[in-house]
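Incident review: delayed structure delivery

Summary: a single-chain prediction request sat in the queue longer than the usual turnaround. Root cause was a stuck worker, restarted by the on-call engineer. No data loss occurred. The affected request and its eventual output are reproduced below so the record is complete for anyone auditing the incident later.

Affected input:
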Amino acid sequence: MTPLDALEAILHGPLGDHPLLVLAWQVLLFGAIYFGVRLLRRARAAAGRAWPRATLPLAARVGRGFRRVAGNVWILLAIAVLLPLVELTDVFSAIGLSGGYTLSVTYNVELYVLLAIGLNIVVGYTGLLDLGYVAFLAVGAYVYGIFASPQLGETLHATFNFLVPATQGPGAHVSMLVLLPLAGLAAAAFGALIGIPTLRLRGDYLAIVTLGFGEITRIFANNLDTPINITNGPNGVVRIDDVFIGGYSFGDITNHVGPFAIPPFLNYYYLVLLLIAVTVFFVARLAASRVGRAWTAIREDEVAAEVAGINTRNLKLLAYASGGFVGGMSGAVFAAGSHVIAPESFQLFFSILVLCMVVVGGMGSIQGAALGAVAIGMPYFLGGQLRDLRVLAFGTILVLMIVMRPQGLLPSRQRRLELTETIDRSAGVPQVATVSDLREP
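Output delivered after worker restart:
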């Protein structure tokens, strides 16, 4: 029995095959875990919160070390660079996972890391609840798909057949170096269009409107095959080009570096890794600037920020556009790697999944968003055989996270101070957070 089979058996439970019985078992299972953790916390409080380092529980010491590693950008970058090379050695073959499969899973998780960082701008920094973020992914994917496939030539021939014969309309086939920023700009413009009618909406109302925009985008792509066939309707755009840089094709299976073969997913993996590194650099600089501080002020109290002289309208539009730009770039790479896109690839569930990644990782933290994408994405893609059970498990885990650790796995310093009480152990009086407390380590 492989570990995935064991996990499926644990999540399925012994009560039966009916979905309600499976759900009841999962509630009991995760409820037992929750109350077990509560009992451990009470035991720790009874023994004294400041345990000596020698008697500190192993889980707490592992957790502290993990947070230090996860907060170090250079360590994370080294792991990201070396991980696919380790996977290609079939190190996971003992548990039934081939190197090519794990590399494809890691590539998909990377795309979600990029999406989570982009959504973190809107949700984490500015506090705008966006349930339609998959629309930005769709816009970027269709921009790349239309201009890097025969679709544009076929559309022109069908529309102006007397000017563009079929033999002279092979499509545009524009380079990724041009289409990547173009897809980002198109999604940014779409984000600004979403932001204009939602400037005065907050909370649940904003979430419902953005959800509607996401669904409208998918339905629009599904029906935009008449009277002019732009998106090819439910059949989607096919035969999308690989990424070409000079004479090097990312999708060529015959690529070699010396005696070593370079699989296509490895090329796309390092392309997305480069985009993540560039995005993290600019987002971190943006968050530390006056714009980032203004976004934080809007998140804390929009009315107070407006009274203080902050142009909330323009800054909220900038947040939507910035998040949309990152989502559009992700969509372009997604289209290039999959070679086919269809409206059904951009359903509401994926917006919810990316939002869960941001919440679980820690809103307002770049490292937290990336960690949340890995923590949610890896089990999601590796657990494909679990089918709907993984959705039930993720929902239960998200509820437990909200109850037990609302700040997320790796929150920003400011977010952690907002959601946890700082108590003076000697006097029992809450402490006031100072400026030095808000500085990142």
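Verification: The chain has one domain: 65-411.
Action items: add queue-age alerting; document worker restart procedure.
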